[in-house]
Design brief:
By secondary structure, the chain is of the alpha+beta class. It is built from 12 helices and 12 strands. The strands form 2 sheets. The protein has a 7-stranded antiparallel beta sheet with strand order 1-3-4-11-6-9-12. A 5-stranded antiparallel beta sheet has the order 2-5-10-7-8. Helix 6 crosses helix 8. The radius of gyration is 22 Å and the shape is globular. The N terminus is likely disordered.
């Protein structure tokens, strides 16, 4: 857990014309800004703070030197959406395709020479270590050492950065209670996008073991139609790393674990709608199988079955 968070959930959306006010605004950070570009400063911060992680977008209109530390027992990751001029971290230029990372032990030492727009995620060190062990097989990954410099293909980094940006925009449309309830799934998505860039150290299981993993996977997915597990949950449950889990599912069923899980849950909703009782509604059925966004549920249901869920229910009641 990130220490010193005053509330289990908070949202900040603000603009600033003073560099010191912006530096003081993020929750649970200890930092100081210096304006190193010419002109009038304009900044914007959108920050979502949960009790296990933070997710934010920060932009500056001109050059800034940022000093200070990430929240306690956490790593901060930065993915630039855009930057005019150059970026620097701890007295070294940021190369193309570099994932910016800093631990709570690091001085962030981040500098921009021009305007910048950056996605920031703050993730607990213990959860990173667990994720890397379970998903990547990286037993020697030490979150207490200074953060490494990871390099990934520029197009891949850009794709994942824009995926995080779209996710942040999506969060802005949700009410606080929805965000609180979706926190575990949200954290898993952020971990997948950011830590998913780190290569795997795994050795693939032989074919007969992959068949066993696929059988276990299908049983778990059917047992948890109303409480869909994360990929991390599945890796732990079947004692396999992510790459083996994915390959086992693709070989056995032709679908990725997430796609298969979604299809099984959609099939369950259709069965419930085709056999309604007096209390059955589209909303109640969607919620029963953990489809939290009703509009998105209706769209994917229609793509799969060729009709809206409301039409399925009306037709069933008419029989």
């Amino acid at each position: 857990m990130l220490r010193d968070l005053p509330v289990p959930f908070a949202r900040i959306e603000n603009t600033f014309d003073d560099v010191d006010a912006m530096a003081a605004s993020p929750i649970a950070w200890n930092q100081h800004y210096e304006q190193i570009g010419r002109g009038r400063f304009q900044g914007r911060l959108t920050q979502f703070v949960f009790d296990q992680f933070q997710f934010a977008r920060v932009s500056y209109s001109l050059g800034v030197l940022q000093r200070g530390c990430a929240p306690d027992d956490a790593w901060a990751f930065g993915l630039p959406l855009s930057a005019q001029g150059s970026l620097h971290v701890r007295r070294r230029p940021v190369a193309q395709g570099e994932l910016i990372a800093a631990t709570s032990q690091d001085d962030v030492g981040f500098a921009t020479t021009g305007s910048a727009d950056i996605i920031v995620a703050v993730l607990p060190a213990q959860a990173i270590e667990h994720w890397m062990h379970v998903r990547r097989g990286a037993d020697d990954f030490n979150v207490h050492l200074p953060s490494p410099r990871w390099h990934v293909p520029t197009e891949e980094l850009s794709r994942r950065t824009h995926a995080l940006s779209a996710l942040l925009e999506e969060l802005a449309t949700h009410a606080e209670m929805e965000l609180r309830g979706a926190a575990p799934q949200l954290q898993e998505r952020i971990f997948q996008i950011i830590l998913g860039m780190i290569p795997s150290a795994e050795i693939i299981e032989p074919l007969h073991n992959r068949a066993r993993i696929a059988r276990q996977l299908l049983a778990i997915l059917n047992e948890r139609l109303d409480d869909p597990p994360t990929i991390t949950d599945l890796c732990v449950a079947v004692s396999a790393k992510e790459r083996t889990l994915h390959l086992s599912c693709m070989e056995a069923f032709g679908w990725s674990p997430m796609a298969l899980m979604t299809d099984l849950r959609l099939n369950a909703t259709r069965r419930a709608l085709l056999r309604p009782d007096g209390a059955t509604s589209v909303t109640s059925v969607a919620e029963r199988y953990s489809f939290t966004h009703l509009g998105r549920f209706s769209n994917i249901y229609r793509r799969k079955f060729g009709e809206l869920p409301s039409v399925t229910l009306l037709r069933a009641r008419a029989c």
